[in-house]
Design a protein that fits this description.
Strand content: 35-45%
Helix content: 25-40%
CATH architecture: 3-Layer(aba) Sandwich
Structural class: alpha/beta
Radius of gyration: 18 Å
Number of domains: 1
CATH topology: Rossmann fold
Distance between the termini: 38 Å
Number of helices: 6
Oligomer: single chain
Protein backbone atom coordinates (compact mmCIF):
# COMPACT_ATOMS: atom_id res chain seq x y z
CA UNK A 1 0.00 0.00 0.00
CA UNK A 2 1.40 3.37 -1.03
CA UNK A 3 1.57 6.10 1.64
CA UNK A 4 1.77 9.76 0.63
CA UNK A 5 2.79 12.14 3.44
CA UNK A 6 2.35 15.59 1.88
CA UNK A 7 4.21 17.42 4.65
CA UNK A 8 7.44 15.74 3.55
CA UNK A 9 7.58 18.40 0.83
CA UNK A 10 7.18 22.06 1.71
CA UNK A 11 4.07 23.77 0.35
CA UNK A 12 1.36 26.18 1.45
CA UNK A 13 -0.38 23.17 3.03
CA UNK A 14 2.01 23.51 5.97
CA UNK A 15 0.62 26.98 6.70
CA UNK A 16 -2.94 25.63 7.02
CA UNK A 17 -1.69 22.69 9.07
CA UNK A 18 -0.05 25.14 11.47
CA UNK A 19 -3.29 27.10 11.89
CA UNK A 20 -5.52 24.09 12.62
CA UNK A 21 -3.03 22.93 15.27
CA UNK A 22 -2.48 26.31 16.94
CA UNK A 23 -4.39 26.89 20.20
CA UNK A 24 -4.18 30.61 19.44
CA UNK A 25 -5.98 30.29 16.10
CA UNK A 26 -8.16 27.16 16.21
CA UNK A 27 -10.67 28.70 18.65
CA UNK A 28 -12.25 30.42 15.61
CA UNK A 29 -14.51 27.65 14.24
CA UNK A 30 -15.12 29.34 10.88
CA UNK A 31 -11.39 29.66 10.27
CA UNK A 32 -10.83 26.08 11.44
CA UNK A 33 -13.47 24.77 9.02
CA UNK A 34 -12.06 26.80 6.14
CA UNK A 35 -8.53 25.58 6.80
CA UNK A 36 -9.80 22.00 6.81
CA UNK A 37 -11.44 22.71 3.45
CA UNK A 38 -8.21 24.16 2.09
CA UNK A 39 -6.26 21.07 3.08
CA UNK A 40 -8.95 18.97 1.40
CA UNK A 41 -8.62 21.06 -1.76
CA UNK A 42 -4.84 20.63 -1.85
CA UNK A 43 -5.11 16.89 -1.25
CA UNK A 44 -7.79 16.56 -3.93
CA UNK A 45 -5.42 18.23 -6.39
CA UNK A 46 -2.63 15.80 -5.46
CA UNK A 47 -4.94 12.79 -5.79
CA UNK A 48 -6.13 14.06 -9.18
CA UNK A 49 -2.63 13.38 -10.55
CA UNK A 50 -3.19 9.66 -9.88
CA UNK A 51 -6.50 9.34 -11.73
CA UNK A 52 -7.22 8.14 -15.27
CA UNK A 53 -7.75 10.67 -18.05
CA UNK A 54 -9.21 10.71 -21.56
CA UNK A 55 -8.82 13.30 -24.30
CA UNK A 56 -11.75 15.50 -25.31
CA UNK A 57 -11.96 18.13 -28.03
CA UNK A 58 -13.55 21.27 -26.62
CA UNK A 59 -15.07 23.86 -28.99
CA UNK A 60 -13.96 27.42 -28.27
CA UNK A 61 -15.16 30.68 -29.91
CA UNK A 62 -12.11 30.48 -32.20
CA UNK A 63 -11.59 26.77 -32.80
CA UNK A 64 -11.18 23.44 -31.00
CA UNK A 65 -8.84 22.66 -28.11
CA UNK A 66 -7.81 19.16 -27.01
CA UNK A 67 -8.07 18.69 -23.22
CA UNK A 68 -7.35 15.69 -20.99
CA UNK A 69 -10.23 15.23 -18.52
CA UNK A 70 -10.81 12.82 -15.64
CA UNK A 71 -12.28 9.49 -16.71
CA UNK A 72 -12.81 8.00 -13.23
CA UNK A 73 -16.25 7.94 -11.69
CA UNK A 74 -15.55 9.38 -8.25
CA UNK A 75 -17.37 8.91 -4.97
CA UNK A 76 -16.27 11.07 -2.02
CA UNK A 77 -17.20 9.68 1.36
CA UNK A 78 -16.70 10.94 4.89
CA UNK A 79 -17.15 9.84 8.47
CA UNK A 80 -19.55 12.15 10.31
CA UNK A 81 -19.30 14.74 11.79
CA UNK A 82 -15.67 15.82 11.94
CA UNK A 83 -15.05 14.96 8.30
CA UNK A 84 -17.56 17.38 6.77
CA UNK A 85 -15.31 20.44 6.20
CA UNK A 86 -12.48 18.24 4.89
CA UNK A 87 -14.99 16.48 2.62
CA UNK A 88 -16.20 19.83 1.28
CA UNK A 89 -12.66 20.68 0.18
CA UNK A 90 -12.62 17.56 -2.01
CA UNK A 91 -16.07 18.31 -3.34
CA UNK A 92 -14.98 21.82 -4.35
CA UNK A 93 -12.47 20.24 -6.74
CA UNK A 94 -14.31 17.07 -7.74
CA UNK A 95 -17.57 18.96 -8.08
CA UNK A 96 -19.34 16.28 -10.14
CA UNK A 97 -18.50 13.47 -7.75
CA UNK A 98 -21.11 11.38 -6.00
CA UNK A 99 -21.10 11.39 -2.21
CA UNK A 100 -21.39 8.90 0.63
CA UNK A 101 -21.67 9.39 4.39
CA UNK A 102 -20.94 7.05 7.28
CA UNK A 103 -21.80 7.67 10.94
CA UNK A 104 -19.32 5.98 13.29
CA UNK A 105 -18.95 6.61 17.01
CA UNK A 106 -16.99 5.50 20.05
CA UNK A 107 -19.02 3.66 22.70
CA UNK A 108 -17.01 3.85 25.89
CA UNK A 109 -16.86 0.89 28.28
CA UNK A 110 -15.09 3.08 30.81
CA UNK A 111 -12.98 6.26 30.75
CA UNK A 112 -10.28 4.66 28.59
CA UNK A 113 -11.76 1.65 26.76
CA UNK A 114 -14.23 1.87 23.90
CA UNK A 115 -15.70 0.00 20.94
CA UNK A 116 -16.47 1.64 17.59
CA UNK A 117 -19.87 1.23 15.95
CA UNK A 118 -21.21 2.18 12.53
CA UNK A 119 -24.88 3.13 12.82
CA UNK A 120 -25.68 4.84 9.51
CA UNK A 121 -24.55 4.76 5.89
CA UNK A 122 -25.83 6.57 2.79
CA UNK A 123 -24.01 5.77 -0.42
CA UNK A 124 -24.48 5.33 -4.17
CA UNK A 125 -23.17 2.22 -5.89
CA UNK A 126 -19.40 1.99 -5.58
CA UNK A 127 -18.94 -0.72 -8.19
CA UNK A 128 -15.80 -0.07 -10.27
CA UNK A 129 -15.63 3.55 -9.10
CA UNK A 130 -12.84 5.53 -7.45
CA UNK A 131 -13.68 5.88 -3.76
CA UNK A 132 -12.12 8.63 -1.64
CA UNK A 133 -12.70 8.15 2.10
CA UNK A 134 -12.05 11.38 4.01
CA UNK A 135 -11.52 11.50 7.76
CA UNK A 136 -9.42 14.32 9.26
CA UNK A 137 -7.97 12.36 12.19
CA UNK A 138 -6.67 8.82 11.75
CA UNK A 139 -5.96 7.89 15.36
CA UNK A 140 -6.09 4.10 15.68
CA UNK A 141 -7.29 3.13 12.19
CA UNK A 142 -10.15 0.99 13.48
CA UNK A 143 -12.88 3.52 12.57
CA UNK A 144 -11.51 3.67 9.03
CA UNK A 145 -11.48 -0.12 8.76
CA UNK A 146 -15.12 -0.30 9.90
CA UNK A 147 -16.19 2.52 7.56
CA UNK A 148 -14.40 0.83 4.67
CA UNK A 149 -16.16 -2.46 5.41
CA UNK A 150 -19.55 -0.74 5.60
CA UNK A 151 -18.98 1.05 2.29
CA UNK A 152 -18.06 -2.20 0.56
CA UNK A 153 -21.66 -3.35 1.05
CA UNK A 154 -22.45 -0.83 -1.72
CA UNK A 155 -20.09 -2.38 -4.27
CA UNK A 156 -16.41 -3.01 -4.94
CA UNK A 157 -14.47 0.12 -5.94
CA UNK A 158 -11.76 0.02 -8.60
CA UNK A 159 -9.46 1.97 -6.28
CA UNK A 160 -9.72 3.47 -2.79
CA UNK A 161 -7.93 6.60 -1.57
CA UNK A 162 -7.91 7.08 2.21
CA UNK A 163 -7.41 10.79 2.92
CA UNK A 164 -6.63 12.19 6.35
CA UNK A 165 -5.17 15.40 7.73
CA UNK A 166 -3.24 13.95 10.69
CA UNK A 167 -2.47 10.28 11.21
CA UNK A 168 -0.68 8.61 14.10
CA UNK A 169 2.21 6.24 13.47
CA UNK A 170 0.09 3.51 15.09
CA UNK A 171 -2.77 4.13 12.66
CA UNK A 172 -0.48 4.05 9.64
CA UNK A 173 0.91 0.72 10.82
CA UNK A 174 -2.64 -0.58 11.44
CA UNK A 175 -3.84 0.51 8.00
CA UNK A 176 -0.83 -1.03 6.28
CA UNK A 177 -1.50 -4.35 8.03
CA UNK A 178 -5.27 -4.51 7.54
CA UNK A 179 -5.37 -3.14 3.98
CA UNK A 180 -2.40 -5.13 2.69
CA UNK A 181 -3.02 -6.48 -0.80
CA UNK A 182 -5.99 -4.20 -1.40
CA UNK A 183 -6.04 -1.49 -4.07
CA UNK A 184 -5.74 1.29 -1.47
CA UNK A 185 -3.60 4.45 -1.24
CA UNK A 186 -3.19 6.46 1.96
CA UNK A 187 -2.84 10.25 1.86
CA UNK A 188 -2.02 12.40 4.89
CA UNK A 189 -0.84 15.93 5.63
CA UNK A 190 1.16 14.82 8.69
CA UNK A 191 2.10 11.74 10.69
CA UNK A 192 2.32 12.28 14.45
CA UNK A 193 4.33 10.05 16.80
CA UNK A 194 1.91 8.91 19.49
CA UNK A 195 -1.54 8.49 21.06
CA UNK A 196 -2.61 9.38 24.60
CA UNK A 197 -4.58 7.12 26.95
CA UNK A 198 -7.85 8.24 25.31
CA UNK A 199 -6.52 7.38 21.83
CA UNK A 200 -6.20 11.02 20.79
CA UNK A 201 -3.28 11.83 18.51
CA UNK A 202 -0.24 13.51 20.08
CA UNK A 203 0.54 16.31 19.46
CA UNK A 204 -2.47 16.31 17.10
CA UNK A 205 -4.90 19.21 17.38
CA UNK A 206 -7.64 18.11 19.78
CA UNK A 207 -11.16 17.07 18.78
CA UNK A 208 -11.69 18.07 15.15
CA UNK A 209 -15.48 17.74 15.37
CA UNK A 210 -15.71 19.99 18.43
CA UNK A 211 -13.37 22.57 16.89
CA UNK A 212 -15.47 22.70 13.73
CA UNK A 213 -18.98 22.55 15.21
CA UNK A 214 -18.82 23.07 18.97
CA UNK A 215 -18.59 20.72 21.92
CA UNK A 216 -21.04 17.81 22.17
CA UNK A 217 -22.67 16.36 25.26
Amino acid sequence: MKINNLSENNSVLNHYLKEIRSVEIQHDPMRFRRNMERIGEIMAYEISKMLSYINEDVPTPLGTAPVNVIEDKIVISTILRAGLPFHQGFLSYFDRAENAFVSAYRKYKDALKFDIFVEYIASPSLENKTLIITDPMLATGSSMELAYGALLTKGTPAHVHIATVIASKQAVKYIKKHFEGKNVTLWTAAIDPDLNEHSYILPGLGDAGDLAYGEKL
